[in-house]
Structures are given as C-alpha cells and as structure tokens.
Amino acid sequence: MSFIVVMAELIPKEGAEDKLILLAEALVEETLKEEGNINYKCLRSITDGTFTFVEEWESVEALSEHLNSPHFKLFSKESADLAEDMEIKVLSAEELNLYE
C-alpha cells in the first residue's frame, strides 16, 4: 500500500516556542480528525528546538483537503511571524515489512 508522507521542519524564532506549541497542539488535534489522515505528529528537537511535523496521508487528495482546511490555514497564518525558516518534503511511499 502506498501513501503520502510529509516532513515539515520549522525553526522557531527566539521566544516563539511556547506560542508555536499552542498552535501546533490545536493543529494536530484537528488534523487527526480528518478523513484520509493516517498519522500526524509534531516533534521538537532536544538539541536545537526545531519543530518537525511528520504526517502520513492516504492520498494526495486527502493532503490537499488538509492544506485547505480552516485549522491549517489558521496555523499557517499565525505561525508565519513566529518561524525563522520552514522546509517541507513530500514523498509517495510504501512501507517495507523488514521485520516479518
């Protein structure tokens, strides 16, 4: 089975971490309710504070719906001034069953 994986790395501006955590919390909560979402996590690096969103989607269409959702648009708008940089990687993937 193939699916879509998104890895979005966000470098917060100094002092913006707490606000970004609140925004990410709301985004993750709403995104996990979306049809077509397999997994959605927000991780924070313990070494440099970078936020990484790790997402799995059933299809490009499901991801597209997410990108047009009110909660994603709100996060994008609110986080724009809180981040120094953001890098996004999107790939079509299939799971390797290496442990069977």
Number of helices: 3
Query: How would you spell out the order of helices and strands?
Result: EHEEHHE
The average pLDDT score comes to 95
Rg over C-alpha atoms, rounded to the nearest angstrom: 14 Å
Task: Write out the strand line-up for the largest beta sheet, numbering strands in chain order.
Answer: 2-3-1-4
Number of domains: 1
Shape: globular
> CATH topology, anyone?
Alpha-Beta Plaits
Question: What class do helices, strands and sheet pairing give?
Answer: alpha+beta
Residue windows where pLDDT falls under 50 for at least 5 positions: none
Question: What would you say this structure looks like, in words?
Answer:
One of its GO terms (molecular function) is monooxygenase activity. Keywords: Monooxygenase, Oxidoreductase. Residues 4-91 form the ABM domain. The protein is of the alpha+beta class and 100 residues long. The protein has one domain: Alpha-Beta Plaits. It is 33% helix and 38% strand. It has 3 helices and 4 strands. It has a 4-stranded antiparallel β-sheet with strand order 2-3-1-4. A hairpin with a 6-residue loop joins strand 2 and strand 3 (51-57). Helix 1 runs antiparallel to helix 3 (70-79). The relative contact order is 0.31. The mean pLDDT is 95.
